[in-house]
User: Which sequence fits this backbone?
């Protein structure tokens, strides 16, 4: 998959495409259905498949205080769409000048002039352009004028419930990671490169691997039972091929030790090797508790021991269910 950021970086070899547009936060089963349609039509037409996303997501630009926490950062979107077999991922910087484009300008400048789209797949509630002035009906009219075809997709349902990123977020907040995974088609996970930390975990008997999360808020925070993949395979894109290790993860600002920025720290059970610089995937399976500020390191250590015991009990129950 080729990643393109911004209009000026569109490669000359991309002469036309079959495409879809959206946020694709979580790349859940509904998203996957749309992507599969794009891939199939692209194959039939002998054209490359392309997904257009926006960074930041539109609501994060217009009303950051109302924006829901992300399921996926850009990193996870790239990896998931690459694993799903898309040819091109086109990331449009969502800024003031882009938000001022009328719906007609967007179609002309981006879809036709830049991408030469031949077929477009959108959701049934898709709106675009300044003040959300464009919709599927406008696309149908403009497609006939400009020489491409367009189709909309109906809402994807599973067990009579609408599949959506909002639904996945709600399930995660309810600590129902099993049901969230059934909608995502895989366990909810974050991916990142292991970086050096302050070594505080090692000093108190719980060495961790550390992944910097960045400034975009994600839906998980607190202490979790997790599985870690990529420790011994160099960070395979297809994590189904990777060995997994049980662990206890903390994601947050580490208030007890005056942490700066959001950090994902994982204490891996029965693993003690150096993996700095390695890309790993952390699958979230169960929330143990929220993040807290403790009065001393001794109290923190007591709670970490308790977290580890609870995680081990969870994994023991999990193994009993799968045997």
Assistant:
């Amino acid at each position: 998959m080729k990643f393109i950021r911004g209009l000026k970086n569109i490669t000359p070899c991309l002469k036309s495409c079959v495409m879809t547009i959206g946020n694709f936060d979580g790349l859940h089963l509904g998203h996957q259905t749309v992507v599969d349609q794009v891939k199939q039509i692209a194959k039939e037409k002998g054209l490359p498949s392309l997904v257009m996303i926006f960074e930041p997501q539109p609501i994060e630009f217009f009303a950051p205080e109302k924006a829901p926490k992300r399921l996926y950062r850009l990193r996870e979107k790239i990896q998931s769409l690459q694993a799903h077999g898309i040819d091109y991922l086109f990331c449009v910087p969502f800024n003031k000048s882009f938000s001022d484009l009328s719906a007609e300008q967007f179609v002309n400048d981006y879809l036709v002039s830049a991408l030469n789209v031949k077929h477009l797949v959108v959701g049934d509630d898709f709106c675009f352009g300044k003040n959300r002035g464009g919709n599927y009906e406008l696309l149908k009219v403009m497609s006939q004028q400009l020489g491409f075809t367009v189709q909309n997709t109906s809402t994807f349902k599973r067990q009579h419930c609408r599949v959506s990123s909002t639904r996945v977020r709600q399930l995660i907040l309810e600590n129902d990671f099993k049901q969230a995974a059934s909608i995502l088609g895989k366990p909810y996970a974050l991916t990142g490169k292991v970086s050096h930390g302050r070594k505080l975990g090692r000093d108190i008997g719980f060495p961790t691997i550390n992944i910097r999360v960045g400034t975009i808020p994600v839906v998980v925070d607190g202490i979790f039972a997790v599985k870690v993949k990529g420790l011994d395979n160099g960070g395979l894109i297809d994590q189904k091929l990777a060995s997994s290790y049980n662990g206890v993860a903390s994601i947050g600002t580490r208030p007890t030790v005056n942490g700066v920025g959001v950090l994902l720290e994982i204490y891996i059970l029965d693993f003690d090797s150096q993996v700095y610089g390695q890309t790993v995937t952390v699958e979230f399976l169960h929330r143990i508790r929220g993040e807290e500020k403790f009065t001393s390191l001794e109290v923190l250590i007591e709670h970490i021991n308790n977290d580890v015991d609870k995680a081990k009990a969870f994994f023991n129950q999990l193994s009993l269910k799968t045997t």
